[in-house]
Amino acid sequence: MTALLERPRTHDAVRDLDRAARRVLLTNWRGHATVPAARLYPHQWSWDSAFIAIGLRHLSPVRAQRELESLLGAQWRDGRVPQIVFDPHVPDDAYFPGPSFWRSARAPGAPGVPTSGIVQPPAHALAAWAVHQADPAASRGRGFLARVYPRLVAWHRYLTTRRNLTGNGLMSVVHPWESGLDNSPAWDVPLARITPVPGTEFTRRDLNHAAAGERPTDTDYGRYVRLARDYRDAGYADSLGVHAFAVEDPLCNALLAAGEHALASMAAELGLDGERHRSAADRLTENLTTMLYDHAGGVFFPRDAHSGRMLRSYSIGGLMPLIVPGLPVASELVGTALGDRFRLRDACPLPSYDLSADDHDPGRYWRGPGWVNTSWLFWHGLRLHGEQALADDLRDRLIDRVRDAGFREYFDPLTGTGHGTDGFGWTAALVLDLLRTP
């Protein structure tokens, strides 16, 4: 195991934080997978499991492998990895929308376990390669990569084919929940086209565990339900005709490109030719930079697949392509992060939305607060592109923030006040990784 981060004056506090993070992951463990939070999110979530596996690899590489194997075991025949894998031992009404809403069993090619029909950002190849590297001997002994590699290839193929809705080589998200940045202001324009389902037609379970002022509005939730219901009723078919909301998202495409580099490494480990993955990564990087990067703004913007228009909102997703190896505009992204919109040197975690915007809300979900996972991705990108001093400073401040406020779901990026649920899985897991990465 890599040694804990050593900071002499806070050595005992760091040890206490490490033990507390372990307790969170143990509490949230369900024998085959880790739930994000025991009360608010009682099932397995897709990109949560990727981040959780990255932290678990420091404690038990085999358990980290099982985390990803459990998720990929619920993969659909078309290659999609679902946003949620439902635990059949949890009551149907514990979370909305639950399995009775999604009706995955009626969909062609769905797995034998109940799942949602939408997806989440493709962080899984990065996680799988990191997990393998934590203990290559154990990974080889269990045949971990041999099992997950073909599933990850099928997952990326689904995104680059079925979700290439415009034909321009970029994948689209078809629901705000798929972006991971659920109610970001980046989605306000295309969401405005969607007629919300009346609140009388559904019951929100999230408000039983979190304050209404920290969650999406009822109107936005009604739009989310409308989009999910329409997708379900279309048999989860993918086309612009089906999806009233379709956006080419920088975060998802960046993870896809970075994931192709990870798949190339896996292919080499398995004695296969990884050239197709390197070529795919190059194409995605070029398309991402050519089509979504705004030189004047120094940031990536999403693009509405229906109108072709850029969605000019300075969300954290616009900085996430820093995780892509060889990104030609990496230095410009770092400059934007250092500016007034994100204030890299003092805001922590990095704000999910422009600090200088009039509608910045530091307490409402993805409309302003900072999340540890996106800051972890940016930290990873800083290290990748040689910004070690900035990376070290961000790491130290993230650790301090969580030590002071706890393993919260998200935080006020300036005051550090914790928001959302507590005992949050990826916060704990990624703190473990931050503590152990030199």
Automatic annotation (TrEMBL):
<dbReference type="Pfam" id="PF22422">
    <property type="entry name" value="MGH1-like_GH"/>
</dbReference>
<dbReference type="InterPro" id="IPR054491">
    <property type="entry name" value="MGH1-like_GH"/>
</dbReference>
<dbReference type="InterPro" id="IPR004888">
    <property type="entry name" value="Glycoside_hydrolase_63"/>
</dbReference>
<dbReference type="InterPro" id="IPR008928">
    <property type="entry name" value="6-hairpin_glycosidase_sf"/>
</dbReference>
<feature type="domain" description="Mannosylglycerate hydrolase MGH1-like glycoside hydrolase">
    <location>
        <begin position="41"/>
        <end position="427"/>
    </location>
</feature>
<dbReference type="GO" id="GO:0009311">
    <property type="term" value="P:oligosaccharide metabolic process"/>
</dbReference>
<dbReference type="GO" id="GO:0004573">
    <property type="term" value="F:Glc3Man9GlcNAc2 oligosaccharide glucosidase activity"/>
</dbReference>
<dbReference type="GO" id="GO:0006487">
    <property type="term" value="P:protein N-linked glycosylation"/>
</dbReference>
<protein>
    <submittedName>
        <fullName>Trehalase</fullName>
    </submittedName>
</protein>
<dbReference type="InterPro" id="IPR012341">
    <property type="entry name" value="6hp_glycosidase-like_sf"/>
</dbReference>
<keyword id="KW-0326">Glycosidase</keyword>
<comment type="similarity">
    <text>Belongs to the glycosyl hydrolase 63 family.</text>
</comment>
<keyword id="KW-0378">Hydrolase</keyword>
